[in-house]
Specification:
- This protein is an alpha/beta fold.
- It is built from eleven helices and eight strands.
- The strands form two sheets. A six-stranded parallel sheet has the order 4-3-1-5-6-7. Strands 2-8 form a two-stranded antiparallel ribbon.
- The longest helix has 15 residues.
- It is globular.
- The N terminus is likely disordered.
- InterPro entries: HAD-like_sf, HAD-SF_hydro_IA, HAD_2, HAD_sf, PGP-like_dom2.
- Pfam families: HAD_2 (PF13419).
- One of its GO terms (molecular function) is phosphatase activity.
Length: about 280
């Protein structure tokens, strides 16, 4: 789906990024780790039809949805232990996804069409130990320098109420608060409608919409295939994978607040009122 440009929108002053599957290739690594353990116990590889229901859900790899499909011949605690062992082994192999480094570098010096600075923040469901393990690669560490430490909100951040992970908007609203709390003197606060959320998961898109922010959905090719024909509902935040109430926070189909891109390469800055230095 092509990106949408409309004069109804304010120029984007803040970009808030998810991490897993968006900035780094963790979705493929998660699949590999799960498949290694499944193979070990004589079970088939995890299909995307199941994986699509798990993405972005905290603890989903240990959930009823997963275990009802997997039918593993081992106790659940053993599955959890063996999966964690695989993840700790392979997370350090994470690499940036296409277009990410260039986008983040451009945003460091970009401005809005009205001449204002662009701010960036990280909002990831990854907990601190996993975040550290996934960002050991020097290229990733260099790339992530764009995110000031006080503008990184992780999944175990004590400021996020327990049970209020995505698709609740809390993590994105906290990231915006971190930006506003650290603005230079004299710079006006950034409003939610001046924020652009970057997400790969369906739940993340919904969280961004609930935060009253614009959203760019950059799904894995296999995830996009699972939601073929449902893209408009995804972009409106109306798939309903996890029910949390607060229906008034959801978007409307074709309201233009969200768009989908195949990757972060050749990002259409102008569609969001952003100008980059040549």
């Amino acid at each position: 789906m092509a990106s949408t440009t409309s004069s109804q929108f304010l120029p984007i002053r803040a970009c808030i990024f998810d991490m897993d599957g968006l900035l780094i290739n963790t979705e493929d690594i998660y699949s590999m780790c799960a498949n290694n353990v499944l193979e070990r116990h004589g079970r088939p590889h995890l299909p995307w039809s199941v994986k699509a229901k798990l993405m972005g859900v905290p603890g989903a790899s240990h959930s009823e949805v997963f275990h009802e499909w997997a039918q593993l011949p081992i106790p659940r605690e053993q599955w959890k232990s063996e999966l964690l062992e695989q993840q700790m082994l392979h997370f350090p192999e994470c690499k940036p996804l296409p277009g990410v480094a260039a986008l983040l570098m451009n945003l460091k010096t970009a401005k809005t069409v009205t001449g204002k600075r662009i701010h960036v923040a990280l909002a990831t469901s990854a907990k601190t130990p996993d975040f550290v393990s996934k960002t050991t690669d020097p290229e990733i560490q260099k790339m992530f320098e764009v995110f000031d430490t006080n503008r990184r909100v992780l999944g175990d951040d004590s400021r996020i109420e327990k049970g209020r992970g995505k698709p609740a908007p809390d993590i994105f609203l906290m990231a915006l608060k971190c930006i506003n709390d650290s603005l230079p003197d004299g710079e006006s606060p950034v409003n939610p409608e001046e924020c652009l959320v970057f997400e790969d998961s369906v739940l993340g898109v919904e969280a961004g919409r609930r935060a009253s922010m614009r959203v760019v959905w950059v799904p894995h090719l296999a995830l996009a295939a699972e939601y073929r024909g449902e893209e408009k509902d995804v972009l409106a935040g109306r798939v309903g994978l996890v029910a949390i109430g607060d229906e008034h926070q959801l978007g409307q189909v074709d309201d233009g607040w969200a768009t989908s891109l195949p990757s972060l390469e050749n990002f259409p800055y102008g569609d969001f009122g952003i100008e980059i230095n040549p």
